[in-house]
Amino acid sequence: MLSNGLEAMLSSPSSFDALDIPQSLVNDIILRYFFSYGKTTGNDIEKLIKLPFRVVDEILARLQQEHLVEVRHGTGGLGRRGYMYAITNEGKNHARD
Fold first, then answer.
1. Are 86 and 38 in contact, with CB atoms under 8 Å apart?
2. Most buried pick, 19, 59, 82, 90, via CB within 10 A?
3. Strand 40-41's sheet: what is its strand order?
4. Dist. CA 6–CA 30, nearest whole Å
């Protein structure tokens, strides 16, 4: 049986705020990926940054609210995981900086 402290360290983060890394770092990684490779799904971003989808979804929603990425269309029966996201012109400008 794991101690509570170790169990807490090994558990997946439930939200972005539970991570101990700057939001700007994760945003930059995602935007540079979009800038280099074009559109991609939420599922692909999850694999790229190795975070649970609930955290990835939160990050993508913030990027959408900031008009840095947009949803192009949904794919398959994956729900939001299957949404096809693309970088906006504003997102490209941000990724270049």
1. yes
2. 59
3. 40-41, 83-87, 69-74
4. 29
Are the beta carbons of 43 and 74 closer than 8 angstroms? Answer: no
Dist. CA 5–CA 20, nearest whole Å = 16
pTM of the model: 0.79
58-84 confidence digits (pLDDT tens): 999 999 999 999 999 877 676 788 899
List, in sequence order, every beta strand (DSSP E) within 42-90: 69-74, 83-87
Lookup result for tokens 């970088």: 87
d(CA 95, CA 97): 6
Q: Which amino acid is at 52?
A: P
Name the pairing type of β-strands 69-74 and 83-87. antiparallel
